Amino acid sequence: MAMKTWQDLRPLFPYLRPYRQRYLLGLGSLLAEVFFWVAVPQIIRFAIDDLTQGVTSDKLIQYAALLFVAALCKGFFLYWTRMIIIGISRDAEYALRNDLYRHLTRLSSSFFQRNRVGDIMSRSTNDLNAVRMLLGPGIMYSGRTLVIMAGAIAIMAHISPKLTLYTFTLAPIIAGIVVYFGKRIHHRFEAIQAMMSDISARVQESLAGIRVLRAYAQEESDLAQFQMLNRDFMERNRKLIRVWGMFYPILEVLMGLVTVTVLWAGGREVARGAITIGDFVAFNVYMAQLAWPMVALGWVVNLHQRGLASLKRLDTILSETPEIADDPMAHFISMPAPKDGVAEQIKGASIEFRNLSFSYNGVPATSAAALSEQSGKGSHSRSDRRVLKEINLLIPAGSTVAIVGPTGCGKSTLVNLIPRLFEAPTGSILIDGVEIHQYRLADLRRMIGFVPQETFLFSETIRENIAFGVEQSSEEEVRQAAEVAGLLSDIDDFPRGFETMVGERGITLSGGQKQRAAIARAVVRDPRIVILDDALSSVDTYTEELILTRLQSALRGRTAVVISHRTSTVKHADLIVVLVDGAIVERGTHAELMQHGTYYPELYQKQLLEEELEKA
Question: Is 84 helix (H, G, I), strand (E, B) or coil?
Fold first, then answer.
């Protein structure tokens, strides 16, 4: 049992190792505090035996002073014990929380497709708090209980081995009860934490989709489902309370039996003259002192079981290996440095796809982009089918390439592979003639400005959302990016301008405003490569033309990959690629495809008709 517990604690060793010296200092404070704790009954013992010989004022003052000093020293060292050991638990919690968050940011998309956000949040808060309690109060009270018991038992055995034997006749039973209830507490707490994750996930999903719930008048239905989860959570807690409620009374009854036994046997020892009254009183004081450690033992067991259960849940996240990571041989890519006080012109980067074929290999693609690519012709399509088939395409540096095609043909998957949001086969994608796995992830993604289909804005100001991903950006750069994206006039109409809070997920902005904010975010990065994945789908045709005109100037000299369902968006591109069922079926300029193409002219005429119908 002890060996298994030690193995379960191994993930925490790296977080405790830096505090070894502080733990030793805390242990020294704990030993000093326990020394004065066990000294108090000894002072009482000598005082009673001495005062039975004759009571004087000097003796009373002397023993009262000794008890006061012992209590003062005990309180002093107890304070430092708590400060040191509990402080270590806070420091370890800080480091563990940072590592957990850092690890979460590095995990691949598939991890977040398998795990709900609410579950991850529960582990990052409730489970982390339980681990902190294990490292702080759990360690402190465990050590304190063991040291107090060792010291008290040694002195009690010195006073009367016979009474000490009576005291611990029930020790094996108590130990068995602690182990038995400890296992039950552990299993029940694991179930509670799992249920808490389900509740957190449910609340997170419901609040994120609150507008949909209201639009479909599903508030009562959602509340009923939450009440079912909450009722299950309450019942699991009640099961734990029942076990916990039985644990303490059983310990109290056993301690009561021991006390009665000692009083009966000790009284007879005093009557026979085997021990003095002072010995007997001191022995009973030690018995009383042991009562709290025995009761605290149950609380410590609970802390340990809760902590171990939570640590196991956290370790499942920390042990996850990112599917997309830097190659050990990846090299650093530096951006052009300023020259004579003026930044050099940032040139675009060429992109080449060589015989690229790709499938999700059975990983459920629940993100919007991946899901749209896999759903294709129906809901029964397999996630391990080839989404892209033998793509060969060269995008020269500084050119603009547009990709069009039906929903689910692989457009979003193709551009997601460039910044390695999904992992392409080695050697199938090159940037400036260098295989993308040879770039560090941070450097690769730093040279790319990506505007995905699903726009995500943070619960910050508009300025902070636009400047996201740029360490330092001036007010003028943010304004210019907003103007390029066609958002500046909207921002100027807001009461607080760029300092307007957009709310969670950009709830205060319209769909078109959110897309334009995302475009501005990409522009302000001044990237070498710009990827627009259907980034203008939520704006009207007039605004689209305005943004495209401004973007042509902002993207001059940069490589741009544009995905759109509107032919008006792509007709000015240097090259248009038509993707159908994961394969390139047509390529050329707008004029070339209109003259010689098959799919593209049909798409163009269809959209012209739709625009005419809208005007009518």
Answer: helix
Considering the four listed CATH numbers 3.30.230.20, 3.40.50.12230, 3.40.50.150, 3.40.50.300, the one that applies to the domain covering 455-526 is: 3.40.50.300
Phi and psi (nearest 5°) for 534?
50, 45
Q: Which of 576, 566, 552, 555 is nearest to 607 (CA)?
A: 566
Q: Domain ranges in the chain?
A: 8-318, 348-447+530-616, 455-526
SS in 3 state form for 448-499? EEEECCCCCCCCCEHHHHHCCCCCCCCHHHHHHHHHHCCCHHHHHHCCCHHH
Q: CB atoms < 10 A from the CB of 255, how many?
A: 19
Beta strands in 360-451 (DSSP E): 386-395, 400-404, 429-431, 434-435, 448-451
pLDDT digits (tens, 9 = 90+) for 180-226: 777 787 778 778 877 877 787 778 777 777 767 777 777 788 888 88
Distance CA 279, CA 256 (A): 20
- CATH code of 348-447+530-616, in short, is 3.40.50.300
Structure tokens belonging to residue 323? 């599917």
Fold classified for 8-318: ABC transporter transmembrane region fold (1.20.1560)
The pTM score is: 0.70
Name the range with the highest mean pLDDT among 35-39, 352-356, 599-603: 352-356
- How would you classify the pairing of strands 429-431 and 434-435? antiparallel
Sorting pLDDT into bands at 50, 70 and 90, what band is 381?
very low
**SS3 of 515, please?**
helix
- The Cα 418–Cα 430 span in angstroms is 9
Judged by DSSP in three states, 338 sits in strand
Intrachain domains 348-447+530-616 and 455-526 with the same fold? yes
- Computed from CA positions of residues 541, 542, 544, 549, in that sequence, does the dihedral angle turn out positive or negative? positive
The SS3 assignment for 322 reads coil
* Angle (deg, nearest 10), helices 277-318 and 57-106: 10
